[in-house]
Amino acid sequence: MSSSNTTLDPTAEPRSELAKQVEEDHAERHSTHGEVLRDIILGVADGLTVPFALTAGLSSLGSSNLVVIGGLAELFSGAISMGLGAYLAAVSDSDHYDAEYERERREVEAFPKTEERECYEILEKYNIPHDTLTPVIKALVSDEAQWIQFMMDFELKLEKPKWYRKYVSALTMGLSYLIGGLIPMIPYFAMSDVTHALFVSIGITAVVLLVFGYIKNWVTVGTKRSAFYGAFQTLIVGAAAAGTSYGIVRGLDSEHPVSTQ
């Protein structure tokens, strides 16, 4: 009788379709390029602000050639420095992971009871009863490699860096800095009047900073409010850096004038 009622229930199929639709709509979408995105954000942000601040400061000396030469020197040295810094940071992360993995392996071998007790403590924080955990822990500690990996993931919360991470990070951050830094310098290549080039550079960079800040927060946070906040924040930081650099160079030049001939 129950099977007959189920078959004749007119709402059974629509509910099933609704459940499928809800499940499809709820499909989780997570970014898998967090580290690359972070490198791009750091590279472009520094590239937009540092060379822009430097060229704005040098423009107070009144020479387009000086701005271009000084800007290019900083741009390439900055890109190399950013790439090298990213490479060394990634190497350091990898070395740190390997050292912690070896330390954890020695602890598992030398103090298995202590490490097993730590497994219980880690999982009991999720309000799982001790008795329920026992078969899980026993299965886990029976495989030493998985046991060590569990401790790395849940006790130390460390993720093994991919072997190519250091190369990708160095290339991504260096190129991002180079591309970001070229933008505020474009007017100085095309215009001989340094004052006009400065104002055009300010306009271009302001627009790019707004767009970059908006996209940065939209991608990382995902709300319009945060995106507008990111645009405003990035613009303020860039303007402050450029204004400070301009004021310092102008002040130094008034004390000790630099010949641009």
TrEMBL record:
Residues 1-31 are annotated as: Disordered. Coiled coil: none annotated. Residues 12-31 have a biased composition (Basic and acidic residues). The chain crosses the membrane at residues 167-190, 196-215, 227-249. GO terms for molecular function: manganese ion transmembrane transporter activity. It is found in: Endomembrane system. One of its GO terms (cellular component) is endomembrane system. CDD domains: CCC1. InterPro entries: Ccc1_fam. One of its GO terms (biological process) is intracellular manganese ion homeostasis. Keywords: Membrane, Transmembrane, Transmembrane helix. Pfam families: VIT1. It is a multi-pass membrane protein. Belongs to the CCC1 family. This is DUF125-domain-containing protein. It comes from Hyaloscypha bicolor E. The lineage of its organism: Eukaryota, Fungi, Dikarya, Ascomycota, Pezizomycotina.
